[in-house]
Specification:
The chain is mainly alpha-helical. The protein contains 18 helices and no strands. The termini are close together.
Length: 508
């Protein structure tokens, strides 16, 4: 540390646990939840936001995309900044910036101001996210304690999206959509005030020079890649009768992203102090965890998106009712995350990840049988509950495995990769499931017309819409099942391979 300010870790010797680590975890958990909430909290408010600010249907997707693009694009750079500049310092700057950006979003008077605020939220979130995960890695060195810490993270990662839908519905219906942004301000202020005394500083030892060419290449590459798939999803929704994958602009950005990321890999293999050391992703267990995370992210975000549409557009739920209807997933996550934290040190990560992936896939498979008039308790409730149970058993060992053994020098980078692949998976999955859904809707209407039914009949349209949603749920289940298969094949780590890493932790 170059800062002469005394830190709360003074007097702690290497190898000893930080005494305020559980308080630090509580502070970190609040801000991690804030980041994850913001990916979904605005979704239910989209109609209200668009109406108030005069945002067209063609451009309203940027309310979501502006956040995901900058968040996904800057994650790896944010991870390295946390490692080299200081994780606590990066955390505080990220939280403060996120609060300011949220305040600006709530004050937005036009679409340009709102889109800019969302982009700023994503950029500061890319600092806050990796710093938070890296702090968990260096604060919890005991295997059992670390499993509990990651159980908290797993519960937030798995259930935060559903909580975001609920909170967004409540705020939009009973207060104002602007509070979907303003709610972050007091949360961030409390987190910053608590982090100053309770969260210790830590930095990567050794060489801490920045890999500027690598940072530029991967930021542009990830942004271009994510944007390309976003264009596919947008084309599928705006022009359902056309082939969304035939969008030349989308393929240009996707191809450009692939080329830039490939160049990034070449640079990382040659520079002395890379932004992303290849040893992080070439490790079989960690690479398997990252690939699993990509597939889970692809299936999960798409599932929440279509489930929210089903509740509101088919069952006729109000926004707040749709939010409450999403809670069984959170309930399942909370139950299984607690169980997983106790089981990881006993059975290792692999069995839980495989079991969790299969259970979550079964939950989505159940949702593929939804009809126009299905009772909530008949299929949505058990399907969501199984999805949540599976996600808790998946995310806890997944987060643990992806970060453990990375070493303190690379803790921020390892956490950033985990979040980056989830973001990429979510973008690709949303585009893939959106196009599959639209194709199913079109096929259903065509079949109805061939059977002598009127394609303009609202009942025919509604049935076709449900066909689209259920087809998306089925393919989302396939993605989660593929994640379970990847875990079964690639991950070899056992409970004995989970080191405490106590000898490599240096806080303060």
């Amino acid at each position: 540390m170059t800062d002469s300010t005394p830190l709360p870790t003074s007097g702690i010797t290497a190898g000893e646990p930080y005494p305020r680590r559980w308080l630090a975890l509580a502070v970190i958990a609040v801000t991690v939840l804030m980041i994850i909430l913001d990916a979904t909290i605005v979704n239910i408010a989209l109609p209200s936001v668009s109406k108030d600010l005069g945002i067209s249907a063609a451009t309203q997707q940027w309310i979501v995309t502006a956040y995901t693009l900058t968040f996904g694009g800057f994650l790896l750079l944010g991870g390295r900044i946390a490692d080299f500049w200081g994780r606590k310092r990066t955390y505080l700057v990220g939280a403060a910036g996120f609060a300011i950006a949220s305040a600006l979003g709530g004050l937005a008077q036009n679409e340009a101001m709102l889109f800019a605020a969302r982009a700023l939220q994503g950029a500061f979130g890319a600092l806050l996210g990796p710093a938070s995960l890296a702090l968990l890695t260096v604060l919890f060195t005991d295997t059992k304690e670390r499993a509990k810490a990651f159980a908290v993270y797993g519960a937030i990662a798995g259930g935060g999206s559903a909580v975001g839908l609920l909170l967004g519905g409540v705020l939009t219906e009973y207060v104002d959509w602007r509070w979907c942004f303003w709610v972050n301000v007091p949360v961030a202020i409390v987190a910053i005030a608590a982090a100053i005394p309770f969260v210790p500083e830590s930095k990567a030892p050794g060489d801490s020079t920045y890999d500027v060419p690598g940072a530029v290449l991967v930021t542009l590459g990830l942004t271009s890649f994510v944007y390309g798939f976003t264009k596919v999803a947008q084309a599928a929704q705006e022009h359902p009768t056309q082939n969304a994958w035939g969008n030349a602009t989308a393929w240009l950005f996707i191809a450009g992203g692939v080329v830039l990321v490939a160049l990034f890999v070449v640079v990382e293999l040659r520079v002395k102090n890379p932004l992303l050391p290849m040893r992080l992703i070439l490790d079989r267990n960690r690479g398997g965890a990252y690939l699993t995370s990509t597939l889970v992210g692809a299936g999960l975000i798409g599932a929440f998106f279509f489930l929210s549409l089903y509740f509101q557009q088919v069952l006729g739920y109000k926004p707040v009712e749709a939010g409450f209807a999403s809670l069984p997933t959170t309930l399942g996550v909370l139950v299984s995350a607690g169980a997983a934290s106790a089981l990881v040190p006993k059975v290792g990560p692999k069995p839980l990840m495989v079991f969790g992936g299969v259970i979550a896939a079964v939950g989505l498979f159940l949702l593929s049988f939804l009809t126009v008039d299905t009772s909530f308790w008949a299929l949505p409730f058990p399907g969501e509950l199984l999805l949540g149970l599976g996600l808790g058993f998946t995310f806890v060992p997944l987060s643990n495995l992806a970060l453990i053994g990375a070493g303190e020098h690379d803790a921020g980078a390892a956490g950033a990769v985990l979040q980056a692949v989830q973001q990429v998976g979510a973008s690709v999955g949303t585009a893939l499931l959106a196009t599959i859904s639209v194709a199913a809707i079109t096929a259903s209407i065509t079949d109805a017309a061939a059977a002598g039914q009127n394609p303009q009949d609202p009942a025919v349209g509604m049935a076709a819409q449900v066909d689209g949603y259920t087809t998306a749920f089925l393919w989302a289940a396939v993605l989660l099942l593929a994640g379970a298969l990847v875990s079964a094949v690639l991950i070899k780590a056992t409970k004995d391979d989970l080191p405490t890493d106590a000898d490599m932790v240096h806080v303060g």
